[in-house]
């Protein structure tokens, strides 16, 4: 990398607009060369990751095309800012190119997916406002963004998504094993998440996975937990039943006959 380009990356890491302007005076084409020659991170990636809003604002004013550039992990500057929770930077990037909400990184994750798994609710709000359909994009494993929230214990993110898109198909989406988010929450004994999901009108409490098991069946096939009985009763109250033989369960049978 040439000396002037090295200085540009140093300016990005410090968020120095003065250094950026000085470098542009020395070489008007420096950003064009970075745009063409960078195969890893651009200065915009660096500034977005580190939260330098003023630098980000200035560089996208001069070279807005940098917003679409991907690093070696196929992450855009919006991916990095979203994961880190830099709301102002997310807002600035979206104002130029909201379609980057739909871009996937090497793992198939969008900026919204990354924000959800980190619990960046304020960032998620901005992303959903810019591109509501970003929430509907599934992961490569067949999961949707709600599965991601449960797996990463992000209840507030889950609540935001369900309040934004409450459609039956969305809240009852199944992964490649046929599990809904309720299956996952029950299997992991996430009591607060379970209780929230059971208040959602569209939730299907007796949805079957590919093994023919309902969420209540899932309860006894996972590790025992001190709150198992509480989960069982919560499911029963909303009409949840089990398809499997549960007579050996220490808290008693809770199959169809006890509903």
From TrEMBL:
<dbReference type="GO" id="GO:0005886">
    <property type="term" value="C:plasma membrane"/>
</dbReference>
<dbReference type="InterPro" id="IPR036770">
    <property type="entry name" value="Ankyrin_rpt-contain_sf"/>
</dbReference>
<dbReference type="Pfam" id="PF12796">
    <property type="entry name" value="Ank_2"/>
</dbReference>
<feature type="repeat" description="ANK">
    <location>
        <begin position="73"/>
        <end position="95"/>
    </location>
</feature>
<dbReference type="InterPro" id="IPR002110">
    <property type="entry name" value="Ankyrin_rpt"/>
</dbReference>
<keyword id="KW-0677">Repeat</keyword>
<feature type="repeat" description="ANK">
    <location>
        <begin position="107"/>
        <end position="133"/>
    </location>
</feature>
<protein>
    <submittedName>
        <fullName>Uncharacterized protein</fullName>
    </submittedName>
</protein>
<keyword id="KW-0040">ANK repeat</keyword>
<feature type="repeat" description="ANK">
    <location>
        <begin position="177"/>
        <end position="202"/>
    </location>
</feature>
